[in-house]
Every structure is written in structure tokens, then in C-alpha cells.
User: What shape does this take?
Amino acid sequence: MVGVAAAESARPGILLAGVAGLVAGAMSMAAGEYVSVSSQADTEKADLAKERAEHERSPTHELRELQRIYVDRGLDPGPSADTPYETKAELLPKTLREAVFALKDDPFFREALGAEFVDYYVHIKNAEIERFQAEVSDWEQREYFEMF
Assistant: This one.
């Protein structure tokens, strides 16, 4: 643009040279960005195909590798799956009655669902448990009453 301004003092010529330079620069940047994004997409596709093939060949190894990557990034792996009962977390209820009892006293669910809803739900579930326990099961029939 400076060269055009030095050679010609007419304003339209200088303006045309400036707009042409602006358009040429924008097109050049757009083409460069397109090539960069296309190249990155091709690389990602190739990496994905490679990882899929490795996963099919050795899924256990790939799982361990993925676990290591996440742990290296600072993710807490939690307690060992080899010793699930050595955790300090509370144990889950073993029966429906224990689960209903735990729900009744749980502050999170009482707050989230409302105390009235939780109390009503617990009442319904306790009635179901009582009806279930009043029935003689097939096992009880066979075990205790088969000779009759």
C-alpha cells in the first residue's frame, strides 16, 4: 500500500490497494486455518483408529493404560476393588426393611423430596413388607408343610 501511495497520489487507487491487501491477508489466514484444522482432524482420526485396534487386540492392557493416565492426571482411584469391604464408607442396607429405615432418617432425601413424601413412601413400603412377610413362601411350604 505504501508503494502504491508513493507511485500514485489518487485516493481511489490507494484505497483499492488497501482493500486488496486486507482481502488477501484474510484469505491467506483462512486458508492457513483450514489446513491446520484439517491436519489436526486427520491426526485425530488416525490416533482413534490406532487406539481402537489396540483395544481390540488387548482390552485389559488398554484399560490399565487409561486408568494410569487418569491417575497421573490426579484422579483419585478410590478404594481397591480387591478389598471392597475394607473401605471406611458406610455399608449398604442388606434388606428392604433396612433400606426403608435408612431412607426414613436420611436428611438429604427428606430435604430433596420433602419430609411428608418420604414419610408417606416409608409408610407404604412398610405396609408392603408386612403383607409380604404374612404370606407363606413356596420354600416355607416345601420345607415345613410338605408332609401334610
